[in-house]
Amino acid sequence: MFKKILIAEDHQSSNISVQKTLQDLTIDNADYVYYCDHAFSWLKNAIRDQDPYEVLITDLSFEEDNTIQQITNGIDLIKATRAIQPDLKVIVFSVESRPSIIDDLFKVHGIDGYVRKARHDADHLKEALRAVYNHKSYQPSDVKQSIRDKNSYEFTTVDIAIVSLLYQGELQKNIPQCLKRRNIKPSSLSSVEKRLNLMKETLGFTKNEQLAVYCKEKGLI
Amino acid sequence: MFKKILIAEDHQSSNISVQKTLQDLTIDNADYVYYCDHAFSWLKNAIRDQDPYEVLITDLSFEEDNTIQQITNGIDLIKATRAIQPDLKVIVFSVESRPSIIDDLFKVHGIDGYVRKARHDADHLKEALRAVYNHKSYQPSDVKQSIRDKNSYEFTTVDIAIVSLLYQGELQKNIPQCLKRRNIKPSSLSSVEKRLNLMKETLGFTKNEQLAVYCKEKGLI
DNA sequence: TGATGCTTTACGGGAACCCGTAAAAATCAG
DNA sequence: CTGATTTTTACGGGTTCCCGTAAAGCATCA
User: Fold this and answer.
1) Where does the sequence pass through the membrane (chains A, B) (predicted)?
2) How big is the CA angle at B91 (ends B125 and A93), to the nearest 5 degrees?
3) Chain-centre distance of CA B96, in angstroms?
4) Who contacts A14 (Cβ-Cβ below 8 Å, separation ≥6)?
């Protein structure tokens, strides 16, 4: 099993239980920090001392407080880490359940495991560590399930651009110009109207307000 | 210090760390459950056995899974509990940070302490237990702070009703009828327009879509 | 090449919404 | 009760949005 692990997690209670979970796996050399900047320092220092960490277990969202930080969230921490230690195994431990976000973590940021904070998260974390140790990636089944669920409507690039612009306060009649400026293809006012209608009809909405809230909650905009 | 405590928390990792926190306070007789229904059973049985719990520490949101539950969230658990054991001390331990929701817990549901899952939550939980043991209520300072912060705009009953109706898909021109049906006072179309304009102007928005997302995120609708 | 089907665009009438003004109603002080 | 102030309502013209239809663009295939 892994020997040297770093935990980056701002919630004290989560941090404590991750420590305990690692103890159960007889991993004694686990360090824990509450800020991304600290995590990055520890990772750097470990490399300098020629005793690098094998695994980083990190949360995604870190709350701001009065101590100013350079790195403010898990994704930026992962990006920064990749630059100095590309082979570090990364397991993300977060409440995030939106498939689009989790997919990105694997596909764009190349993480090795994802454990969602939920009913059996401590057990899942153990499974994840074992899987990653055996050079497999770990993604719990319920996430894959919700990927399927989510396919109630397949949002295209245009769809997301349109709703984003609306949410930013753009007038509908001005959206064609914005789309043309960004070289997004169907850009006429008719097309914008058509896409909006299709989205609303598919999702059972009648007003743009509902659509905006829906997209915002899903993390699409 | 308290002797007999029940923990209702669906996240295994949070549950573990609450247990550990109670151990630190040398509270050995702490039971823990992962479902509200179980919590309610344990509370009932303890009363039947004439050895009732002194404190309930509970989360607010419990995730659904394949086991169907009667009580599905912390607030309903608190309500049910109040009916069978009104003097039970209740400490809520949740990620919820919206002041309107937390205020309700104290004012409507009469809880004794609130600890937000955050950077020093384990320490705060200890403080809360000590405070409640000394017959004081416990509400961390950062919540009170955010109550003040939130006062960028004071939403009235009408405001919330209007945005809710919009979010439910009601046409703006039909909202006056809805308001009259509910006996909400300024109900003319002009008033609706005026309130909407005031809200948007104060919050720096130009479109209803932005307002709807804002209110939804704040838990106002 | 030209016929065919699909997507995108253009346009126009009507509905909903925005905004300013003014009347009506409610509130309040003296 | 009266007059002044504020709040609420009523109304109208201009803009934006909705929606249906028709034309234009574009790829496919005989």
Assistant:
1) none
2) 55
3) 7
4) A59, A93, A117, B13, B14, B17, B117
What is the pTM for the complete model shown? 0.80
- Residue in B16, B168, B213 nearest the CB of A167: B213
Residue A101, C-beta contacts closer than 8 angstroms, at least 6 positions apart: A219
**Superfamily for domain range B4-148:** Response regulator (3.40.50.2300)
Task: Label residue B22 left, alpha or beta by phi (over 0 means left) and psi (-120 to 50 means alpha).
Answer: alpha
Q: How far apart are the first and last CA of chain B?
A: 40
Q: Which helix (H) or strand (E) holds A115?
A: strand A113-116
Nearest CA in chain B to A35: B119
Q: Are A53 and A8 in contact (CB under 8 A)?
A: no
Looking at domain A4-149, its CATH class is: alpha beta
C-alpha span between A12 and B104 (Å, rounded): 26
- What is the residue-level pLDDT of chain A in tens, covering all 221 positions? 999 999 999 999 999 999 999 999 999 889 999 999 999 999 999 999 999 999 999 999 999 988 999 999 999 999 999 999 999 999 999 999 877 788 889 989 999 999 999 999 999 999 999 999 999 999 877 655 554 444 467 789 999 999 999 999 999 999 999 999 999 989 999 999 999 999 999 999 999 999 999 999 988 88
| Residue A68: both structure tokens together | 């100013």
**CA atom of B141 to C1′ atom of D4, Å:** 46
